[in-house]
Amino acid sequence: MKKFTWLAVAVVAVLALALPGCSNGTNNATTTNSAPTQITVATDATWAPFESVNEQTKQIEGFDIDLFNAIAAKVNLKITYKNVAFDPLLAGMAAGTYDAAISSITITPERAQQMLFSGQASLTGKKIGVQLGTTGEVLAKGIANSTVRSYDEIGLAFQDLLNGQIDAVICDTPIANNYVKKNATALKTVGGALSTEDYGIAVAKGKTDLLNKINQGLAQIKADGTIDQLVTKWLAG
Questions:
Q1: Which of 64, 66, 158, 181 makes a 20 to 30 Å CA pair with 236?
Q2: Which percentage of the chain shows pLDDT scores above 70?
Q3: Are residues 172 and 186 in the same domain?
Q4: Is there a domain that residue 154 lies in?
Q5: Whether 115 and 214 share a structural domain
Q6: In whole angstroms, what is the distance from residue 83 CA to residue 98 CA?
Q7: Are residues 70 and 176 in the same domain?
């Protein structure tokens, strides 16, 4: 069987999930008898193991979902998740449609506009699959003479990779590893990481109280080892 190749965008410090301004002095659990604050959180549930729809239960699950649920339990939030494609998710956050979003969102000063392009010589002139609206798409478009195909879902890119329609897929390392496990005889990683990125939880502008709560809960689940447990559950290996 033909061996297809792809490159992955590395995730540096999976634990670096805090938003700017996170305080280290809020490790005590929140106790309150008040009703929980209801929030709507957008996620693009096509990025296993971070977020995907369980085929049996039809529920959204994954590292990001467990992470946000753990934060919510600490700071008395009640979450309604909305499964939204990534590009509309970003547009919705900009428009204030959602209170927050968690969906493997890379932290950059301006969404991927200042990303450095390096280590891509092996993809010059190749057909590269990416997900629409991601930093991987921007990265691929900076590769000389490449043909970039953008997909609504990363799974569609991998289908075309397996079918020989494209030469490579650029995506985040844990997502890439997940596809390798399922297609070990057909897929492999090559070369080094193309870039390093930190993920963050996005919060709508003006919702500083919610931002503070999320940062408080995040500090607590870092301190009590919850994040380590979630990394082992979803991302190890």
A1: 158
A2: 74
A3: yes
A4: yes
A5: no
A6: 11
A7: no
- CA-to-CA separations, 125 to 7, 13, 28, 143, 148, in angstroms, rounded: 14, 31, 53, 8, 10
Q: Quick one: residue 12, left, alpha or beta (phi over 0 = left, psi -120 to 50 = alpha)?
A: beta
Report how many domains make up the chain: 2
DSSP secondary structure, 145-159, as one string: T-EEEEESSHHHHHH
What's the CATH number where 126 sits?
A: 3.40.190.10
Q: Point out which residues pair with 81 in neighbouring strands.
A: 41
- What tens digit of pLDDT does each residue of 15-47 get? 222 122 233 334 444 445 688 999 999 999 999
Closest CA to 48 of 134, 153, 130: 153
In Å, how far from its chain's centre is CA 192? 20
Give per-residue pLDDT as tens, 158-199.
Answer: 999 988 899 888 888 788 888 888 888 888 776 556 666 656
29 within domain boundaries: no
pTM of the model: 0.59
Does residue 19 form part of some domain? no
Burial per residue of 163-176, b for 16 or more beta-carbon CB atoms within 10 angstroms, e otherwise: eeebbbbbbbbbbb
Provide the sign of the torsion angle of the four alpha carbons 40, 46, 51, 54, taken in this order: positive
Round the CA-based radius of gyration of the chain to a whole number and report it. Answer: 18
The amino acid sitting at 99 is D
Q: So what's the pLDDT on residue 196?
A: 62
Is 52 contained in some domain? yes
Q: Are residues 117 and 189 in the same domain?
A: yes
